[in-house]
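Example 3.2
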Amino acid sequence: MAISLTRYLAEAAQRDQALELLEKCDSCDVSLQEAVAGYRRVDSRPHCSDCYFCVLSDAVDQHPIGRPMVTAFSISTTT
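Structure, written as tokens:
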């Protein structure tokens, strides 16, 4: 059933307020709606799909897949 124009306009403020409560992407400030923009967290900060894959590709560039990641560590031996 269609709603009347007056009811639609009366509910506009409520809709706008609901949009302000949405989380925003940490990188680009896009309002995150999971069905529209995707919703992923990196280091517990929300990111949209585009920014998430940029962060992911940067991580892959730093540590390429297929090569072992060499980290510095110390071995202590006691005799």
